[in-house]
Amino acid sequence: MARTGLADPMQPVLRLDGIVKQFPGVRALDGVQLALYPGQVTALIGENGAGKSTIVKTLTGIYQPDEGQILLDGQPVRFPTAQAAGDAGITAIHQETVLFDELSVAENIFIGHAPRTRFGLIDKAEMRRRAREILDSIGATIDPDVRLRDLGIASKHLVAISRALSIDARVVIMDEPTAALSHKEIEELYELVETLKAQGKAILFISHKFDEIFRIADRYTVFRDGQFVGEGLMADVTEGELVQMMVGRSVDQIFPKRKAVLGNPVLQVVGYSHPTEFDSIGFTLRRGEILGFYGLVGAGRSEFMQSLIGITKPSKGVCKMGDDIVIIRSPAEAIEAGIVYVPEDRGKQGAITAMPIFQNVTLPSLGKTSRNGFLQMAEEFKLAREYTQRLDLRAASLDVPVGSLSGGNQQKVVIAKWLATQPKVIILDEPTKGIDIGSKAAVHDFMSELAAQGLSVIMVSSEIPEIMGMSDRAIVMREGRIAAELEGDDLSPETLVRHAAGITSEAAA
Amino acid sequence: MTMVDHIKTRVIPDRLTTPTERILKSWEALLLLVAVGIFILNSFASPYFLNAWNLSDATFNFTEKAMIAFAMALLIIAGEIDLSVASIIALASTVMGLVMQAGFGTPVIVLAGLVTGLLCGVFNGVLVTRFNLPSIVVTIGTMSLFRGISYIVLGDGAFRGYPSEFAWFGQGYAFWVISVEMVIFALLAVIYGVVLHKTNFGRAVYAVGNNATAAMFSGIRVGRVKLTLFMLTGLMSGLAAVCLTSRLGSTRPSIASGMELEVVTMVVLGGVNILGGSGTIPGVVIAAFVMGLVTFGLGLLNVPGIVMSIFIGALLIGVIALPRLFARLKGRK
């Protein structure tokens, strides 16, 4: 068969082979492969942390692979910069696409490659005309002169797509493009994908939602923990098979969870609601229990947890600690009530990175270490040493800034800081996200030790093995509501994924 | 599979540096060298410099500004700023004049000055914390507002005829050559030093300035800390208004014009990060002396005021830039 390049749907436009990307302590991509075909949509499927974002960054020239090769039309290529990837016809529409709010639609579409006049100035008329053309081609009725900030999120997506088309892209990467769209807007996006397919573009489509993958993808590729698991045609695979490929790892990490003896209810939440973020959340947490909260990004887990400690205000709902109703309006009141929250964003919310370790640890406990409002450094060092050592912190001294530590050790400082307040309930939001395996083990170990001592733990996690390995019980949240409460035999990787993604059919697993 | 390190308890030392090392390597030590250098230069430059009464006079160059600078230092460390302080002086002084004309004595006049300053601080603080406005914008606004009120009241006139006891604050001496203002300065230096470096409140100030979000998550009432600092800055401006009005013996609406920038200069020269998060009170104290000495020394040499401000500006940029320059050169090697 003669190779005709562009139009041959049997030959991939772009192939990645044996790609390895190493970060300190993590092998984000471990010899993965991926092929994209002209006029076809390839869905990239995997859990959080499977390496999807890393592969997108490798494709768009933001990361350089440590090993492996990228083949464009069968020729090995390298993308040392984002510009180089763009020139090769690869473009990405990200979860949060980088656009410029203060510029017009036409300027956004053509920024970096605007048509020029003879004098080297931007040819506004030409730019507007071509912007109009591109917008028309995807059926968008957006005025090219309007400022981007005046558009809604869906229209912004269309602008981002137009921008991709303006550089004559051959490969379009769509990273969770429907995450923020309404039902109607999603339908429009599907039509647009069909248009792009008809134009012969190769599309990489990343999504957590199985219904849309089955609706628009022609092929699939599954990653798990930075490794390639499988690929094939959508027509040959069932939902159940995909789920199993996604999560089917043997839970081979050793989780130190001990079988806990659960005590009396410590925290009871009834009907917690918020106008936009979550609705009717209720559960009971018992003494010594580890309760997992699983869900996709954006399911409202963090927002709900933050309302428990008084950062966002719930519109409705009651919170009981023991037998007493408590009203918590600020983190200070939450600490007083004995409920603390270790935030997901370590650098912004958890630690004050410029300040020394001991001052970070004692910050919420200053009332205990001080006398009449005056600092007592000796007491502070004592408290900081006690808790950081229990978490096996590695640091030169307690006086160095937290920012000088590795991610895992920063997380230990943050957890130590909250434990030092001696809470009754601790909420850990993605406690091991982005930290090395050794630190993960230390955090898990400590978590189960605490539970055994009678502390109640709420663990928000997007990692299935962590939920499976650590929780006594798991709540799955989807779109701001509790989708399921799973315990015992019902708690399995498959059920977690099903409820989180909203799969209703009981396809064979 | 790799072996997870087996967990052994290791002792993390509290600190690796001794207190002496920390002091020698500090910004304050460098600044102190600069101060000593200027002192020596001055004593060579003018035969009148090394005279107890002349030196005592020199302290008036910085005492009033430094009173505000202490509170301003805390405010800037917490990530905010107050540019209305000189205008608060004008308004407080005007209110004091009105109270004096209404026939009240020294205690009420002083109280009026302090309360006016405090209320101005509350006004700034509420706008910043309740309405989440940037403090630089709010206080540029109130800078015009406060002095504007003063101009409306006074026009091109002035209040004169303050009671003779009132002169004690700005013209009196506690003992020998030590002025009352100098004593107030010293007391405030100690109080602010203790508050910033030895109390929970001081720690909260640093936490808020370094990362207000993390501070809030840690249970610090960020808004309350900031409001308190604006109130303190206002109160100190009121106190400076009492001293300055007493020293001048009159109130004009142009009183203390441009002082806000000298106060900020003093704070920054003292090693306080203009972006918030770090700085010390000893640094501000030394910076106050440096600015006083430079102004006084140049004055003895009959250098005109405009050249003096050029000098202070150059000093500020030089002292701030040089350590960074050295650090960069070191880094290149």
UniProtKB/TrEMBL annotation, chain A:
Residues 14-250, 261-504 form the ABC transporter domain. CDD domains: ABC_Carb_Monos_I (cd03216), ABC_Carb_Monos_II (cd03215). It is found in: Cell membrane. GO terms for molecular function: ATP binding; ATP hydrolysis activity. The keyword Repeat applies. Its main location: membrane. This is Rhamnose transport system ATP-binding protein.
TrEMBL record, chain B:
It is found in: Cell membrane. Pfam families: BPD_transp_2. InterPro entries: ABC_transp_permease. CDD domains: TM_PBP1_transp_AraH_like. This is Autoinducer 2 import system permease protein LsrD. Its main location: membrane. It comes from Donghicola tyrosinivorans. GO terms for cellular component: plasma membrane.
